[in-house]
Amino acid sequence: MKKSIATIVAVLTLFTANIIQAKSIKTETTSIEIVDSNQLQPVYDAYFTVKDALIKSDSKLTSAKAAALLTAISAVKMDKLKSDEHTAWMKVIKKLTADAKSISATTDLKKQRETFKSLSKNTYDLIKVSKSAQVVYKQYCPMADADWLSKEKAVKNPYYGSSMLTCGNVVETIK
Protein backbone atom coordinates (compact mmCIF):
# COMPACT_ATOMS: atom_id res chain seq x y z
CA MET A 1 0.00 0.00 0.00
CA LYS A 2 2.87 2.39 0.86
CA LYS A 3 4.46 1.66 -2.54
CA SER A 4 1.17 2.46 -4.33
CA ILE A 5 0.81 5.78 -2.51
CA ALA A 6 4.46 6.63 -3.18
CA THR A 7 4.01 5.78 -6.88
CA ILE A 8 0.89 7.95 -7.14
CA VAL A 9 2.66 10.86 -5.42
CA ALA A 10 5.65 10.48 -7.80
CA VAL A 11 3.40 10.43 -10.88
CA LEU A 12 1.45 13.48 -9.70
CA THR A 13 4.69 15.34 -8.98
CA LEU A 14 6.04 14.63 -12.49
CA PHE A 15 2.70 15.53 -14.07
CA THR A 16 2.54 18.86 -12.18
CA ALA A 17 6.14 19.68 -13.09
CA ASN A 18 5.42 19.05 -16.79
CA ILE A 19 2.37 21.33 -16.72
CA ILE A 20 4.36 24.13 -15.06
CA GLN A 21 7.19 23.71 -17.57
CA ALA A 22 4.74 23.74 -20.51
CA LYS A 23 3.12 26.96 -19.24
CA SER A 24 6.56 28.52 -18.84
CA ILE A 25 7.52 27.68 -22.44
CA LYS A 26 4.21 29.05 -23.75
CA THR A 27 4.73 32.33 -21.84
CA GLU A 28 8.23 32.74 -23.27
CA THR A 29 6.95 32.20 -26.82
CA THR A 30 4.16 34.76 -26.34
CA SER A 31 6.64 37.36 -25.07
CA ILE A 32 8.88 36.90 -28.09
CA GLU A 33 5.96 37.33 -30.49
CA ILE A 34 4.94 40.61 -28.85
CA VAL A 35 8.46 42.03 -29.09
CA ASP A 36 8.77 41.06 -32.78
CA SER A 37 5.32 42.28 -33.84
CA ASN A 38 5.09 45.15 -36.31
CA GLN A 39 3.63 48.15 -34.50
CA LEU A 40 2.28 49.57 -37.75
CA GLN A 41 0.49 46.47 -39.09
CA PRO A 42 -2.78 47.29 -37.24
CA VAL A 43 -2.70 50.73 -38.91
CA TYR A 44 -2.30 49.14 -42.34
CA ASP A 45 -5.05 46.60 -41.62
CA ALA A 46 -7.42 49.37 -40.51
CA TYR A 47 -6.57 51.41 -43.63
CA PHE A 48 -7.59 48.44 -45.80
CA THR A 49 -10.95 48.20 -44.02
CA VAL A 50 -11.61 51.88 -44.75
CA LYS A 51 -10.75 51.29 -48.41
CA ASP A 52 -13.05 48.25 -48.55
CA ALA A 53 -15.93 50.25 -47.06
CA LEU A 54 -15.42 52.93 -49.72
CA ILE A 55 -15.49 50.28 -52.44
CA LYS A 56 -18.94 49.29 -51.11
CA SER A 57 -19.95 52.98 -51.16
CA ASP A 58 -21.12 52.56 -47.56
CA SER A 59 -20.53 55.91 -45.86
CA LYS A 60 -21.63 54.78 -42.39
CA LEU A 61 -19.35 51.74 -42.51
CA THR A 62 -16.53 53.94 -43.83
CA SER A 63 -17.03 56.31 -40.90
CA ALA A 64 -16.92 53.42 -38.41
CA LYS A 65 -13.82 51.90 -40.01
CA ALA A 66 -12.07 55.29 -39.97
CA ALA A 67 -12.79 55.50 -36.23
CA ALA A 68 -11.14 52.07 -35.85
CA LEU A 69 -8.19 53.39 -37.86
CA LEU A 70 -7.92 56.29 -35.44
CA THR A 71 -7.76 53.81 -32.56
CA ALA A 72 -5.01 51.83 -34.35
CA ILE A 73 -3.02 55.03 -34.96
CA SER A 74 -3.19 56.05 -31.31
CA ALA A 75 -2.20 52.53 -30.17
CA VAL A 76 1.19 52.67 -31.92
CA LYS A 77 4.01 52.62 -29.40
CA MET A 78 6.60 54.92 -30.94
CA ASP A 79 9.39 53.60 -28.71
CA LYS A 80 8.93 50.16 -30.33
CA LEU A 81 9.48 51.50 -33.87
CA LYS A 82 12.79 51.10 -35.68
CA SER A 83 14.67 54.34 -36.31
CA ASP A 84 13.61 54.73 -39.96
CA GLU A 85 10.01 53.77 -39.12
CA HIS A 86 9.98 56.34 -36.31
CA THR A 87 11.21 59.07 -38.66
CA ALA A 88 8.54 58.22 -41.26
CA TRP A 89 5.86 57.93 -38.55
CA MET A 90 6.69 61.38 -37.17
CA LYS A 91 6.29 62.86 -40.67
CA VAL A 92 2.82 61.41 -41.26
CA ILE A 93 1.14 60.89 -37.88
CA LYS A 94 -0.57 64.30 -37.72
CA LYS A 95 -1.98 64.00 -41.23
CA LEU A 96 -3.02 60.35 -40.76
CA THR A 97 -4.80 61.31 -37.55
CA ALA A 98 -6.50 64.33 -39.13
CA ASP A 99 -7.61 62.32 -42.17
CA ALA A 100 -8.98 59.45 -40.06
CA LYS A 101 -10.85 61.95 -37.84
CA SER A 102 -12.25 63.75 -40.88
CA ILE A 103 -13.47 60.53 -42.52
CA SER A 104 -14.97 59.23 -39.28
CA ALA A 105 -16.77 62.52 -38.57
CA THR A 106 -18.84 62.56 -41.77
CA THR A 107 -21.17 60.29 -43.70
CA ASP A 108 -20.74 62.34 -46.88
CA LEU A 109 -19.23 59.76 -49.23
CA LYS A 110 -17.80 62.41 -51.55
CA LYS A 111 -15.91 64.09 -48.68
CA GLN A 112 -14.74 60.71 -47.36
CA ARG A 113 -13.32 59.79 -50.76
CA GLU A 114 -11.61 63.15 -51.15
CA THR A 115 -9.93 62.80 -47.74
CA PHE A 116 -9.02 59.18 -48.57
CA LYS A 117 -6.63 60.52 -51.23
CA SER A 118 -4.49 62.15 -48.55
CA LEU A 119 -4.86 59.17 -46.22
CA SER A 120 -3.62 56.89 -48.99
CA LYS A 121 -0.63 59.09 -49.81
CA ASN A 122 0.52 59.21 -46.19
CA THR A 123 -0.08 55.50 -45.64
CA TYR A 124 1.99 54.83 -48.77
CA ASP A 125 4.84 57.00 -47.44
CA LEU A 126 4.78 54.96 -44.24
CA ILE A 127 4.44 51.52 -45.82
CA LYS A 128 7.42 52.18 -48.10
CA VAL A 129 9.63 52.42 -45.00
CA SER A 130 7.93 49.85 -42.78
CA LYS A 131 6.79 46.94 -44.88
CA SER A 132 3.40 45.34 -44.40
CA ALA A 133 3.12 41.67 -43.39
CA GLN A 134 1.89 40.91 -46.92
CA VAL A 135 2.49 42.18 -50.44
CA VAL A 136 0.74 45.50 -51.05
CA TYR A 137 -0.21 46.96 -54.42
CA LYS A 138 -0.26 50.68 -55.09
CA GLN A 139 -3.06 51.32 -57.56
CA TYR A 140 -3.99 54.43 -59.52
CA CYS A 141 -7.24 55.75 -60.95
CA PRO A 142 -6.80 58.34 -63.72
CA MET A 143 -10.42 59.50 -63.40
CA ALA A 144 -9.93 60.45 -59.73
CA ASP A 145 -6.25 61.26 -60.30
CA ALA A 146 -5.55 59.39 -57.09
CA ASP A 147 -3.71 56.38 -55.70
CA TRP A 148 -4.69 53.83 -53.08
CA LEU A 149 -3.20 50.71 -51.54
CA SER A 150 -4.61 47.21 -51.82
CA LYS A 151 -3.75 43.72 -50.63
CA GLU A 152 -5.22 42.32 -53.87
CA LYS A 153 -3.75 42.78 -57.31
CA ALA A 154 -7.23 42.98 -58.85
CA VAL A 155 -8.38 46.60 -59.09
CA LYS A 156 -11.38 47.57 -56.97
CA ASN A 157 -11.67 51.33 -57.05
CA PRO A 158 -12.58 53.02 -53.73
CA TYR A 159 -13.14 56.39 -55.41
CA TYR A 160 -16.06 55.29 -57.58
CA GLY A 161 -17.26 52.02 -56.05
CA SER A 162 -19.59 49.97 -58.22
CA SER A 163 -20.04 52.72 -60.84
CA MET A 164 -16.41 52.26 -62.03
CA LEU A 165 -15.19 49.37 -59.90
CA THR A 166 -12.31 48.26 -62.12
CA CYS A 167 -11.12 51.70 -63.23
CA GLY A 168 -7.41 51.91 -62.53
CA ASN A 169 -4.26 49.86 -62.63
CA VAL A 170 -1.41 48.59 -60.46
CA VAL A 171 1.49 51.05 -60.56
CA GLU A 172 3.75 49.50 -57.92
CA THR A 173 4.18 46.30 -55.94
CA ILE A 174 5.49 46.80 -52.40
CA LYS A 175 7.07 43.71 -50.85
Task: Describe the protein.
- This protein has 175 residues and is mainly alpha-helical.
- It has one domain (41-174).
- The chain contains five helices and three strands, in the order H-H-H-H-H-E-E-E.
- It has helices spanning 2-36, 41-55, 59-75, 83-104, 109-129, and strands spanning 136-141, 146-150, 169-174.
- Helix 3 (59-75) packs antiparallel against helix 4 and helix 4 (83-104) packs antiparallel against helix 5.
- The radius of gyration is 23 Å and the shape is elongated.
- Residues 26-36 have low confidence and may be disordered.
Defining traits:
175 residues; mainly alpha; three-stranded antiparallel β-sheet; elongated; DUF3347 domain-containing protein
Q: Provide a count of the helices.
A: 5
Percent of residues in helices: 55-70%
What is the number of domains? 1
Q: How big is the Rg? A: 23 Å
What is the terminal-to-terminal distance? 67 Å
Organism: Flavobacterium saccharophilum
Keywords: Signal
Signal peptide: 1-22
Domain DUF3347: 43-132
Please outline what is shown here:
InterPro entries: DUF3347. The chain is mainly alpha-helical and 175 residues long.
